[in-house]
Design brief:
The structure holds two protein chains of two kinds.
Chain A (H helix, E strand, L loop, with lengths): L6 H17 L6 H25 L8 E9 L6 E7 L4 H17 L8 H20 L3 H22 L4 H30 L4 H4 L5 H18 L8 H8 L2 H26 L1 H27 L4 H20 L4 H32 L10 H4 L1 H14 L6 H14 L8 H25 L5 H8 L9 H19 L2 H16 L5
Antiparallel strand pairs in A: 1-2
Helix pairs in contact in A: 1-2, 1-4, 2-3, 2-4, 3-4, 3-10, 3-13, 3-19, 4-5, 5-6, 5-10, 6-8, 6-9, 8-10, 8-11, 9-12, 10-11, 10-12, 10-13, 11-12, 11-17, 12-13, 12-16, 12-17, 13-15, 13-16, 13-19, 13-20, 15-17, 16-17, 16-19
Chain B lengths: L11 H20 L5 H29 L5 E11 L2 E9 L1 H31 L5 H21 L3 H19 L14 H31 L4 H14 L1 H18 L8 H4 L5 H10 L4 H8 L1 H4 L3 H23 L4 H21 L3 H39 L21 H4 L1 H15 L5 H16 L1 H26 L6 H4 L6 H16 L12 H10 L9 H23 L12 H4 L1 H7 L4 H51 L5 H18 L7 H24 L1
Classes of the chains: A mainly alpha, B mainly alpha.
Chain lengths: 501, 700
C-alpha cells in the first residue's frame, strides 16, 4: 500500500474510485449518482488541500515526488513520475476546486444519462490532475491525450444542437497539434536518454531548441488557444454544457499555458529567450483581436469565449516577459481566468436553464427582476475586466508591468499596446452587462412568463455554487500574497536559469 | 518609538463606510419592510460617512500636532514580486488629510440631504425598493475615494481611482432602466457606460505612466519616486516628460478635461446628490489631487507643466462657452464644473498647487451647494407637477412628458421656493467670484499666479471667468425671476428641512470658505498647512489690479446677463434671446460644439465597424467557415474518402505513416537510433482511434 503514502498518486487517481462506485449505481437513481460524484470530487479537493499542507513553499524544487521505472525497453527510460512545485501547485488546487463546483452546476441542468456524465467528468479530473503533476514527458503525453476523450463525450453527448461538429473539431484540432509534440517528445527521449523532465533540463543542445520549441508550441498554442489557432474555441464553448464550459475555460485551456511554462521555458531556455518577442507579438495580437471580436458577438457565450482569447493572450505575454513579475502574474492570471470566466459561464448557464437562449438582444433590465443574479454577475464581470481590488487586476497589472520592462521581449510597445486591451475589455464587458442587466426589460421576460413561470432569482444551490468563486475573486484582489508566496521561489529559480541578454 | 497619534485609525477611513454598506446590504431588505426602514438605511449610511469624517479630523489633528510631520499606517502587504513591493499603506500628511476632510465632510452632508431627496425620487420613479441600493453605492464611493486620497503609492491611489470610477458608473446608471425623464430607455445606462469607458482611457494613461515610473524610477511609492526623479531628470529628461504627460491623460479622464471631458455632462443622468458629490465636489477633483501629489515630478519638467496649464485653461474657456447655451439646469452646472476643473488643472499646471487646492476646496462647497439646490428645485417642480396631475384628477400623470430640469419650464421660483432661492444665490455669487464669497479668493489666487507667470493662461482664464459670471447670471434670471413658464413652476413647493439644512451648512462654508487662505499677512493658513507637504510655496500678496479687474468683469457679466435675460424675462415658448444675435455660434454652444457627434463618427462608429468586420468577415466567414471548413476539413474529407475507397489497399495509410516517419527522421537528425516502426504504428493507432470514435458517433 505504498500508494497511500504518496499524496500525489492518491490525488490523481482518487476520482477513479468514484467512477468505480458510479458503475454500481443504477442509472435511474440520479440524485445518488450526483451525490456520489460530488462527494468524490469534494474528497479530491480535500486531498489537494492535504497536498498543499505538505507543500513547502520556500522550496523551489519538485516536491512530494513519486517516481518508478515504468517502461524500459530498448534503451527507453519511461517513468511513472509525479511531482509538484510552485508552477503547478495552484493549478492543481484550481482543478480540484472547480470540479465539484462544476458538478454542483449540473444538478438540474443535466437530466439525461447522468451516470455517464458523472463518470466522464471524474475521468476528466484524473486526466487534468495527471497533466499538472506528471514529470515524465511520456506520462504527461498520455494524460494530455487522455483528457480529450471525456471532454469529447461531454460536448458530443450533452452539448447543444451542433455538438457533434464541435466535439469532432475540438478533438481533431487539438490532436493535430499534439502529434508534433509527440514527435518532439520521442526525439528528446531518444537523444537525451530520459523522458524525465527535471533530468532533461540543461541537456537539450541549443542548436535544436528552436525546432523542438516550435513542435511543443504546436500542441500548446492550440490548447491555449493563441491567435490565430483559436477557431475551435467558440464552437466548443457554445456547444458544451455549462459544466463543460467551466472546466474547458477554467482548466483545459490552462494546460496549454502550463505546458509552455513547464516544458518550453525550462527545457529550451535559449529558444525561449530568442522567440520571446514573437510570442509577445502573437499574444498582443490575440489580446486586441480577441477583445475586438468579443464586442461584436450576439451570443453571450461566444462573447465570453472570445474574451478568453484576449485573457489568455495576457497570460502568454506575461509568461514570455521571462521575468518574475511577468511569470508570476501569468500564473496568477491562469487562476484568475479560471475564477472569473468560470463564474461567468456558471452564471450564464443558470439563466440559460430558465430562458434557453443566449442571444444578448432578448435580455435587458434583468438587474431589476433578479437582483442577486445581477449583482453577482456584476462582480464576475468587473473581475474579468480587471477592476483593482478584485483578482483580475492583480494578474493583468503584474503581467503588463513585467512585459513593459522585459529584457527578453526587449520593447515596451507590446505591453503598451496590450494595455489598450484593458480599455477594450471594459467596452465588451460593459456592453454585455448593460444589454443584459440594465436598460428596459427585455422580451425574454415576457416570453418566459408566457410559458407559465416567471423568471426567478438564483436559488440557494446556485448561490452556493458561485459563492466560493466570489470569495477568491476578492481574496486574490485584496491579499494575493499567499498565492504569490506559493510560486515565488520556483519562478525565481526558473528565471535565474534563463540566458537573458 | 515615536507615537503617531491617531494614525492607527487610518484604515477606518475605509472600513467605516464599508461597515455601513455591509449593514445596508445584509439588513437593508428587512429594513425596507419596516415603516422606519428608509430613515434607518439613510441614517446608517450617513453615520458611516460621518465616522469617516471624524477619523479624518483626528488624522488631520495628528498631522497638525506633529507640525506637519508625515505619518504612515500600514495595514498589510499587497503585491510583492521581486523588486515590486506594494503595500496597503495609508499616508497622512497635510495634503491627504485635507482631501479626506473635504470628501467625508461634504460627503456626509450630501448623505443627509439624500435621505430626503431619494425618499421623493424613488416615489416619482415608482421604484421604492431601489432606495436601499443608493446608499450602498454612496458608501462604497466614500470608501473608494478614501483609498484614493490616502494611498501611499501610485498603485494604491489607482485602486481608489478605478474604484470611484466604478461607483460613478453605478450611480450614473442608478436609474438604469430609464432616461432622465423617467421613460423606459437605454439612455441612463449608456451615460454610465460612457463614463466608465472614457475613464478607462484615462486609466490607460495612468498605467503607462506607472510602468515607466517603475522601470525607470524603481518604485511606485511616492517618496521613493520623488527621490529618484531628479537624478533621472538630469540624465533622461524625456522619460519624466512622458511620465507626467501620460499621467495627464489620466487626469483628463477623471477630472473631465479636453479631450476626455465628454462623459461628465452625460453623468448628470445620476440622481442629483450624486452629481453634487461625485461629479462636482470630490471624484472629479482627483486629477487635481494627483497632479498636486506629483508636484515633485511636474516641477522637474516645465514643458509638461505648460501643457497641463494650457489643457486646463482651454478646457475652462471651452466648457464655459457651452454652459452659456444650455437649458438644463444641471447641464449648465456640469459644464461649469468642467470649466472650474479647468481652472484648478491650470493652477496646478502652473505650479500654483496651493491655489489649485484652495479652489478645489471652495469649489467643493459652492458647487455642491449649487447642485443640491438645483436638486431641490427639480424636486420642487416635480412636486408641483405631481400636485397638478392629482389636482386635475386625471390619475395618470405620465401622459405628458415633463422635464423638471429644463430652465425653460421654470421662472419666478424665488416666490415659491424662497429658501432654495437664497441658497442658490449664495452659490452663484461664490462661483461668479464676487467678493467676499469663497470663490472670489480662490479664483483670484489662480489668476494672480497666471498673471505673474503665464500671460496666455491668464487671459484665457479671465475670459472664462467672465463667461462664468454671465452663465450663472443667465441661470438666476431664468430660474428665479420673471413669471412661471410652466404650471408646475407656478405650483412648485419648497423642500423639507432634511434637504435644506445641509444646504445651509454648505452655504455658510461658501461664504466663509475664503478665510482658509486670505491674501493678507498672517492669513495664509492653507499655504502654510499644505507647505508641510509641498515644501515652501511662494506666498502671493494681493494684487489690487488683478482682483479689481476680475471683480469688475464679473459684475459686468452679471449686469449683461440682466440686460439680456432679466430686463425682459423669457416668455414660455420664446427662444433664447442670444440665439438671434449670436447665430451660428449659439447653435454651436447649444449643441456642445458637436464634439459628441464628432467622437461618435470618428471613434465609436469606426470601432463598431472594425470589430464587426473582424468578427463577422475575418474571424467567421474567412477563418472559421472558409479556411477551417473548406480548406482544412475539406482536404481531410477528401483524403479520408481516398482512404475509405481504397480500404483494402494499405498504400494510402502506409504512405501517410511513412511521411510522418520521414518527417520525424528529418527532425531528429539521427537515423541510427530511430525506431521507425513505433511511430508508424502510433500514427496508425491515432488514426484508428479517430475512426472508432467517428464510427461510434455515426452508429449511435
Amino acid at each position: 500500500m505504498e500508494f497511500l503514502s504518496q499524496p500525489l498518486t492518491l490525488l490523481t487517481f482518487f476520482p477513479l474510485l468514484g467512477v468505480l462506485a458510479l458503475a454500481f449505481i443504477p442509472g435511474e437513481r440520479k440524485n445518488l449518482l450526483r451525490w456520489t460524484a460530488l462527494v468524490t470530487t469534494l474528497v479530491t479537493f480535500g486531498l489537494s488541500l492535504w497536498v498543499l499542507s505538505q507543500f513547502k513553499s520556500e522550496n523551489p524544487a519538485l516536491q512530494l515526488v513519486a517516481q518508478y521505472n515504468w517502461i524500459t525497453v530498448a534503451g527507453w527510460n519511461i517513468q511513472y513520475h509525479l511531482g509538484v512545485d510552485g508552477l503547478s501547485i495552484l493549478l492543481v488546487l484550481l482543478t480540484a476546486f472547480l470540479t465539484p463546483i462544476s458538478i454542483l452546476s449540473t444538478w438540474t441542468a443535466v437530466e439525461e444519462r447522468v451516470k455517464d456524465f458523472m463518470m466522464f467528468f471524474l475521468l476528466l479530473e484524473v486526466g487534468m490532475m495527471g497533466v499538472f503533476l506528471a514529470q515524465d514527458l511520456f506520462l504527461f503525453y498520455i494524460f494530455w491525450e487522455f483528457t480529450l476523450v471525456p471532454m469529447y463525450f461531454l460536448i458530443g453527448i450533452w452539448g447543444g444542437p451542433r455538438r457533434i461538429y464541435a466535439a469532432v473539431k475540438f478533438f481533431l484540432y487539438t490532436m493535430a497539434g499534439s502529434i508534433l509534440m509527440l514527435l518532439a517528445i520521442l526525439w528528446l527521449g531518444i537523444n537525451v536518454g530520459t523522458f524525465s523532465v527535471p533530468d532533461m533540463i540543461g541537456k537539450v543542445p541549443p542548436g535544436v531548441q528552436i525546432l523542438l520549441f516550435l513542435a511543443f508550441t504546436a500542441a500548446f498554442a492550440i490548447k491555449v488557444p493563441m491567435w490565430p489557432l483559436h477557431s475551435w474555441l467558440p464552437d466548443a464553448h457554445v456547444e458544451a454544457p455549462t459544466a463543460g464550459s467551466v472546466i474547458l475555460a477554467g482548466v483545459l485551456l490552462k494546460m496549454g499555458t502550463y505546458g509552455f511554462l513547464r516544458f518550453n521555458i525550462p527545457l529550451f531556455p535559449q529558444a525561449s529567450v530568442q522567440l520571446a518577442p514573437w510570442l509577445a507579438l502573437f499574444a498582443t495580437i490575440g489580446i486586441i483581436y480577441g477583445a475586438a471580436v468579443s464586442y461584436a458577438q450576439s451570443d453571450v457565450k461566444k462573447l465570453v469565449a472570445y474574451s478568453s482569447v484576449s485573457h489568455l493572450g495576457f497570460v502568454m505575454l506575461g509568461m514570455f516577459a521571462l521575468n518574475e513579475q511577468g511569470i508570476e502574474g501569468a500564473i496568477l492570471q491562469m487562476i484568475n481566468h479560471g475564477l472569473s470566466t468560470g463564474a461567468l459561464f456558471l452564471l450564464i448557464g443558470m439563466i440559460y436553464e430558465q430562458t434557453h437562449t443566449r442571444e444578448i438582444k432578448v435580455y435587458g433590465g434583468l438587474w431589476k427582476i433578479t437582483p442577486i443574479f445581477g449583482t453577482i454577475m456584476l462582480i464576475a464581470s468587473l473581475s474579468s475586466m480587471g477592476l483593482p481590488g478584485l483578482n483580475g487586476f492583480v494578474g493583468e497589472f503584474t503581467i503588463l508591468l513585467g512585459a513593459f520592462g522585459s529584457q527578453a521581449i526587449g520593447s515596451p510597445w507590446y505591453a503598451g499596446i496590450s494595455a489598450a486591451g484593458v480599455i477594450m475589455a471594459a467596452v465588451y464587458i460593459l456592453y454585455m452587462f448593460q444589454k443584459m442587466f440594465l436598460g428596459p426589460t427585455g422580451s425574454i421576460v415576457e416570453e418566459v412568463k408566457h410559458h407559465g413561470h416567471a423568471l426567478r432569482d438564483l436559488n440557494w444551490r446556485e448561490i452556493l455554487t458561485v459563492l466560493p468563486l466570489l470569495i477568491f475573486i476578492f481574496w486574490i484582489g485584496l491579499y494575493p500574497k499567499p498565492f504569490f508566496d506559493l510560486m515565488a521561489p520556483t519562478v525565481k529559480a526558473l528565471v535565474a536559469a534563463l540566458p537573458l541578454p | 518609538m515615536e507615537t503617531h497619534g491617531f494614525a492607527f485609525l487610518a484604515p477606518w477611513l475605509v472600513f467605516a463606510p464599508v461597515v455601513g454598506l455591509l449593514i445596508n446590504i445584509i439588513f437593508g431588505g428587512w429594513f425596507m419592510k419596516q415603516p422606519w426602514g428608509e430613515r434607518a438605511i439613510g441614517a446608517i449610511a450617513a453615520t458611516a460617512s460621518g465616522a469617516a469624517f471624524v477619523v479624518s479630523a483626528l488624522l488631520a489633528y495628528t498631522v497638525f500636532a506633529g507640525h506637519g510631520e508625515l505619518a504612515r499606517w500600514t495595514l498589510g502587504q499587497w503585491i510583492y514580486i521581486g523588486d515590486l513591493k506594494l503595500d496597503w499603506t495609508f499616508r497622512l500628511d497635510s495634503l491627504s488629510t485635507t482631501m479626506m476632510l473635504v470628501v467625508s465632510g461634504v460627503g456626509t452632508l450630501i448623505h443627509i440631504y439624500a435621505i430626503g431627496y431619494m425618499h421623493e425620487d424613488v416615489r416619482f420613479k415608482n421604484d421604492i425598493p431601489r432606495y436601499q441600493r443608493f446608499f450602498v453605492f454612496l458608501n462604497l464611493f466614500i470608501a473608494a475615494m478614501m483609498i484614493l486620497v490616502s494611498g501611499d503609492s501610485y498603485m494604491m491611489l489607482f485602486v481608489g481611482w478605478e474604484g470611484v470610477g466604478l461607483c460613478s458608473f453605478l450611480l450614473i446608471g442608478f436609474w438604469y432602466d430609464m432616461d432622465t425623464l423617467g421613460r423606459s430607455s437605454w439612455a441612463n445606462s449608456n451615460a454610465a457606460k460612457k463614463a466608465f469607458i472614457a475613464n478607462r482611457v484615462g486609466d490607460f494613461g495612468f498605467l503607462i505612466a506607472g510602468f515607466l515610473m517603475f522601470w525607470r524610477l524603481g518604485s511606485f511609492q511616492f517618496d521613493q519616486v520623488f527621490a529618484a526623479a531628479p537624478t533621472l531628470a538630469a540624465s533622461d529628461h524625456t522619460t519624466i516628460i512622458l511620465i507626467t504627460l501620460f499621467m495627464l491623460i489620466g487626469v483628463a479622464g477623471k477630472s473631465a478635461q479636453i479631450p476626455l471631458y465628454v462623459w461628465l455632462p452625460d453623468a448628470m443622468a445620476g440622481p442629483t446628490p450624486v452629481s453634487a458629490l461625485i461629479h462636482a465636489a470630490t471624484m472629479v477633483t482627483a486629477g487635481v489631487y494627483l497632479v498636486t501629489r506629483s508636484a515633485p515630478l511636474y516641477t522637474l519638467v516645465p514643458e509638461a507643466q505648460y501643457i497641463v496649464a494650457m489643457t486646463g485653461a482651454v478646457t475652462a474657456l471651452f466648457a464655459a462657452t457651452i454652459a452659456v447655451g444650455q437649458y438644463d439646469i444641471k447641464k449648465v452646472l456640469a459644464y461649469s464644473t468642467i470649466s472650474q476643473l479647468g481652472f484648478m488643472v491650470a493652477a496646478v499646471g502652473m505650479g500654483a498647487y496651493v491655489a489649485g487646492m484652495f479652489h478645489l476646496i471652495t469649489h467643493a462647497f459652492f458647487k455642491a451647494l449649487l447642485f443640491l439646490s438645483a436638486g431641490s428645485i427639480i424636486l420642487g417642480l416635480e412636486r408641483g407637477h405631481h400636485h397638478l396631475a392629482h389636482g386635475h384628477g386625471h390619475g395618470d400623470h405620465h401622459e405628458e412628458v415633463f422635464d423638471p430640469g429644463d430652465m425653460r419650464n421654470m421662472g419666478g421660483l424665488r416666490k415659491t421656493m424662497p429658501v432654495t432661492f437664497w441658497l442658490y444665490m449664495i452659490g452663484t455669487l461664490a462661483l461668479a467670484g464676487i467678493v467676499p464669497f469663497a470663490g472670489f479668493w480662490s479664483k483670484d489666487e489662480i489668476l494672480l499666479d497666471a498673471n505673474l507667470h503665464y500671460t496666455g493662461v491668464y487671459w484665457i482664464l479671465t475670459i472664462a471667468a467672465f463667461l462664468t459670471a454671465f452663465y450663472m447670471g443667465r441661470q438666476i434670471w431664468m430660474v428665479f425671476f420673471g413669471e412661471a413658464r410652466h404650471e408646475a413652476a407656478a405650483h412648485a413647493e419648497e423642500s423639507p428641512a432634511v434637504m435644506t439644512v445641509p444646504l445651509m451648512v454648505l452655504a455658510v462654508l461658501s461664504v466663509l470658505g475664503g478665510a482658509l487662505n486670505l491674501p493678507f499677512e498672517g492669513f495664509h493658513n492653507l499655504t502654510h498647512w499644505l507647505g508641510h507637504t509641498l515644501g515652501e510655496v511662494e506666498v502671493m500678496p494681493l494684487n489690487w489690479v488683478v482682483a479689481g479687474a476680475s471683480t469688475a468683469l464679473a459684475l459686468t457679466a452679471i449686469f449683461l446677463s440682466w440686460w439680456i435675460y432679466g430686463r425682459n424675462p423669457l416668455k414660455a415658448g420664446q427662444p433664447d434671446p442670444l440665439k438671434k444675435p449670436l447665430g451660428l455660434a449659439f447653435t454651436g454652444m447649444e449643441n456642445k460644439w458637436f464634439v459628441d457627434e464628432g467622437y461618435w463618427f470618428v471613434i465609436v462608429d469606426r470601432y463598431v465597424d472594425i470589430s464587426r468586420f473582424l468578427a463577422d468577415k475575418v474571424d467567421w466567414e474567412f477563418w472559421h467557415d472558409w479556411f477551417h471548413e473548406k480548406v482544412i476539413a475539406g482536404t481531410y474529407n477528401w483524403l479520408s474518402n481516398i482512404a475509405l475507397n481504397e480500404v483494402a489497399d494499405q498504400k494510402g495509410i502506409d504512405a501517410f505513416a511513412n511521411f510522418l516517419g520521414k518527417a520525424t527522421q528529418w527532425l531528429s537528425g539521427t537515423t541510427r537510433k530511430f525506431q521507425n516502426g513505433f511511430v508508424r504504428s502510433y500514427a496508425l493507432s491515432v488514426f484508428l482511434g479517430v475512426v472508432i470514435i467517428l464510427g461510434y458517433l455515426l452508429l449511435k
